[in-house]
Amino acid sequence: MINKIYKSAKEAVADIFDGATVMISGFGEAGSPIELIHALVDQGAKNLTIVSNNAGSGHVGLAALIENKQVRKIFCSFPRTAISVVFPELYRKGEIELELVPQGTLAERIRAAGAGIPAFFTQTSVNTPLAEGKDKRVFNDKTYVLEHAIEADFSFVKCSASDKYGNLIYNKTARNFGPIMCMAAKTTIVQAKNILDVGEIDPECVITPGIFVKRVVEITNPADESKLVEEKRRYPWN
Amino acid sequence: MINKIYKSAKEAVADIFDGATVMISGFGEAGSPIELIHALVDQGAKNLTIVSNNAGSGHVGLAALIENKQVRKIFCSFPRTAISVVFPELYRKGEIELELVPQGTLAERIRAAGAGIPAFFTQTSVNTPLAEGKDKRVFNDKTYVLEHAIEADFSFVKCSASDKYGNLIYNKTARNFGPIMCMAAKTTIVQAKNILDVGEIDPECVITPGIFVKRVVEITNPADESKLVEEKRRYPWN
Amino acid sequence: MELNNKNIGWSVTEMAQKVAMDINDGAYVNLGIGMPELVAGFIPEGREVIYHTENGLLGMGKTANIGTEDPELVNAGKKYVTAIPGAAYFHHADSFAMIRGGHIDICVLGAYQVSEEGDIANWSTGNSNDIPAVGGAMDLVAGVKTIFVITKHSTKSGESKIVKQCTYPLTGKNVVSRIYSNLAIIDVINKELVVRELAPEVTFKYLQQNTEAKLSLAKEGS
Amino acid sequence: MELNNKNIGWSVTEMAQKVAMDINDGAYVNLGIGMPELVAGFIPEGREVIYHTENGLLGMGKTANIGTEDPELVNAGKKYVTAIPGAAYFHHADSFAMIRGGHIDICVLGAYQVSEEGDIANWSTGNSNDIPAVGGAMDLVAGVKTIFVITKHSTKSGESKIVKQCTYPLTGKNVVSRIYSNLAIIDVINKELVVRELAPEVTFKYLQQNTEAKLSLAKEGS
Question: Does residue A22 contact residue A153 with C-beta atoms inside 8 Å?
Answer without folding.
Answer: yes
